[in-house]
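look at this one:
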Amino acid sequence: MGFSPFQLHPKLSQGVREMGYVEPTPIQKQAIPHALAGKDVLGLAQTGTGKTAAFALPILQRLIPGVRGKLRALVVAPTRELAEQIHDAFRGLGAHTGLRSMTIYGGVGVGAQLAGLRSGVEIVVACPGRLLDHMGQGAVNLSAVEVLVLDEADRMFDMGFLPDIRKIVKRLPVQRQNLLFSATMPDDIRHLAHEILRHPETIQVDHDKALTTVTHALYPLPEGNKEGLLVAMLKGMDGGTVLVFTRTKRRAKKLDQRLKAEGFKAASLQGNLSQNRRKAALDGFRDGTHDVLVATDIAARGIDVSQISHVINYDMPDTVEAYTHRIGRTGRAAKTGDAFTFVTPADEDMVRRIEKHMNMRIERKTLAGFNYAARPAAAPSHPRHPQPQHQQQKKHHRGQGRGHGGPAGHGGHQRPAQRPSGAGSSHPPSQQQQPSQQQPARSPMSSRSHRPHRRHR
């Protein structure tokens, strides 16, 4: 099939070829024709399914023949990282069209943003808060907007942006095309879709993809044993990249410090970081400088790193939707992944709700060799350095089994790799369900458990 049935403008087709797109993903196949026809679209899809191109290509096609120098397409996204990823997609796909895109978000100076708006860009990708600031100052003119995209609407709801979105929508022209994408459909998003969309075409692709491409496991334990279990798990891991979720910023920072003290190449992502430090943490996680990233739910919004092999819920999420979002960070773009959740007695109610949503019982496991009865150990005062042979082993494992993934929202099989992805993930060997006395099972990471392959060189 390819992209030829969409009859894209030749300049746009050239961008598609240069971006390495060969076959459209399922959501692109279904959504692009409706969007090209000018219809409103409600798309239910996980991150990593190709939804960015599903709205970027129709927007670029629509804007090519029209006037230039006016803001004609507005994309609203929950985080700076996602905004930048969408902006990169517009720049790549529209490289030969002459159309211009820019991002607007907080945490950076306003000077460059004001200059970009004055220059007359056609496409703006914005986070709600900073966009409202510019609107309040009269710095952005929305009167010519023809297309509105709300990307990851459920996450914007999670972050409390729905009132801001409604304020933005009120300032837009009544006659416009609307495209709304969301991984889940809670009642508030359903109501928002009803308010904004007009006779939409509903596209549902891989809506629960992460639930089927991820191996789930629960690790029951006392609250005080979490740090020790996480350290033991990571020591037994044989390659791959790990995203660890905590409930609070303070815990994320503390855990990051503990892992660094243990010699792991870790970083944290939480709300107190400056934009530069946040970007450095994410870039390091993408390029392999960091193997472990500790993050809170809010700080992790918009993370799009296709090679994540493991998600560890250090703290149980507050909702079933949050669990789906977290584990959706692994098992993406036709890959598989592992999701491990630490469970205390206080978490049992949420476990039941998650299992009901998944319509399955999640296996309970224990980590072989870990002393669940031991009192929590203090963090070492200095990072331990591995022996030379461990360095050689780590170098070997870091290079093993890396596949190639694509950029945000493009579908991993479409674009030649620009950085390593699909790190050699270690899948759990066959394990027995946890007995009532919590007899140790084999390591979930590798048969060579507790070998420290994640040390500083």
In short: The longest helix spans residues 80-93. DSSP finds 16 helices and 13 strands in the chain.
